Amino acid sequence: MKQLWLFNQINSDLQRVEKELTKFVETGYPILQDSAIHLLAAGGKRLRPAFTLLAGKFYGYPLEKLMPVAMALELIHMSSLVHDDVVDASMTRRGRATVKAKWGNIVSVETGDYLLAKSLMLISKIDNPEVSRILAEISVEMCQGEIQQIKCTFDVEQTLKQYYYRIKRKTALLISACCKLGALVSGAPKRQVWALGAYGHSLGMAFQIVDDVLDITAKPSEFGKPIGGDLRQGIMTLPMILALKSTPQSSELRELLEKKDKTDEEVWETIAMIKSSGAIDQSMQLVDIYIEKAKKHLQDLPKIPTRKALEELAEFIRTRKF
Amino acid sequence: MKQLWLFNQINSDLQRVEKELTKFVETGYPILQDSAIHLLAAGGKRLRPAFTLLAGKFYGYPLEKLMPVAMALELIHMSSLVHDDVVDASMTRRGRATVKAKWGNIVSVETGDYLLAKSLMLISKIDNPEVSRILAEISVEMCQGEIQQIKCTFDVEQTLKQYYYRIKRKTALLISACCKLGALVSGAPKRQVWALGAYGHSLGMAFQIVDDVLDITAKPSEFGKPIGGDLRQGIMTLPMILALKSTPQSSELRELLEKKDKTDEEVWETIAMIKSSGAIDQSMQLVDIYIEKAKKHLQDLPKIPTRKALEELAEFIRTRKF
């Protein structure tokens, strides 16, 4: 999504964020640097810096203030991705080379810590105490979301409430912060800071639900990672929770969802059951609700081309296949 | 060391730090809370909060300003311990099973992240941007120290320079920050902020060297953890580096130091070789140099009972057996 046309307004600045980030995480340590650079080079969607910059467009676009915020938010995101990848000891016993897994863990923990520490350096130089307060609160909540996810793996009793709790912390809060802080450091009026934050929140919720749907429905070649990952890791997502409620085969589905070490056939079987339960459509209906909420919040903002870009971004998130 | 007489001046406030910390890490998640509380209950020396408070004693002791700094620094320390445990594969700390041993890597990572995030909440509310700038820089350096340690495990070519680089980041910088920030938030003059920071730095270096010596020489019953841990994990410490230079059995020692998965007999053999090389005495001479440096920096400070307490603390660190 590096050249996503929706980001046309800010493409060269996004590239600058990328360049600055690469330079900023430079260290004398090949291991640390390689893993940090590896993450950056993986590209990802750079959504978070994009939201930060776009939010600033409404208020004079003070790029030198927006850059460190955009960079810090992407570093926080990268740090959380890396820590999420740390393999639990029990998973390494399932035939994965323990030395390799152990080395991966060590470098993952330290890389994540390093990226977070670098983000703190940027944040500590921002002349607005509100920024660090907001980010500190979000960091705590993100940890709580992650722990809840760990606690609830393979737990088929999981409720929708728990799911929303988790995806709010896993995804929505940070995207909300990107929009909010982009506006804040640009001197936006309070009400519009709030509106952009609320846009980002609803968009983040929609984004994660779509991600969870795609993990079940996507074509592997488009998705960029194997599908059924959540099923294999026991992460109970919206389509699964809804499918359990609506499928006629609920005890079979339950059994499959609870099963650790699913075979490929079992994964496909589970996917088929979820699809035939109508849960995918129901999930997408919830996405629609969040997208409409997001777009509604944009109505409070100045009517400039950036507002249209954010509306179209919301639409893109609804319809994306990757 | 909870009732260490050196902390008499501040004992009840140290207990308050402990109480506040326990309350502060409360969360709705038993796993997270249990692991965080588990760490707190392991007790430790509470050195870092003690340094912070003692530094403030010179300048009117504004306790409400010192408390959040003391708490934040202890949380940063705890966070690094938990993450180090993932990295070091250690199973006990201070005689109790580590978070990792009890709950696995993922929970260790998340507990560490959570404790750090909580510290950021405290730091973000401190009305002095210098505090977060200093802590952010230290966090980056601590990561770099940890990575260097990972990179240099079982590396017998390690130099003294590399060792000092590492212990500065692993221990001295944070202790220095405790002293410095305690003074800073209490409104100390710049020169004395510096002096206390320099005291803490030298003391931290001495503290770590003594720790490394004790890992070889301590009586297990006093130490709170099995001895020879560094030898087993391939962490090359000062006594080992010095022993390699001065022992007549350098190729045997080299071989033993490089050996992963040492037997108990091999650990004892290595310890015996290090002891007979004179490296322990040499290490303690370096400790003496750092302690004298530390005490010299105290000369710049107001001559009040706290100054005597800090001098005696320095002496205690020189002579401690645990």
UniProtKB/TrEMBL annotation, chains A, B:
Gene3D superfamilies in alphabetical order: Farnesyl Diphosphate Synthase
Biological process annotations from GO: isoprenoid biosynthetic process
GO molecular function, one term: prenyltransferase activity
The protein's required cofactors: Mg(2+)
Family stated for the protein in its record: Belongs to the FPP/GGPP synthase family.
PANTHER family xref list: ALL TRANS-POLYPRENYL-DIPHOSPHATE SYNTHASE PDSS1, GERANYLGERANYL PYROPHOSPHATE SYNTHASE
Protein name listed in UniProt: Heptaprenyl diphosphate synthase
The organism of origin for this protein: Desulfosporosinus hippei DSM 8344
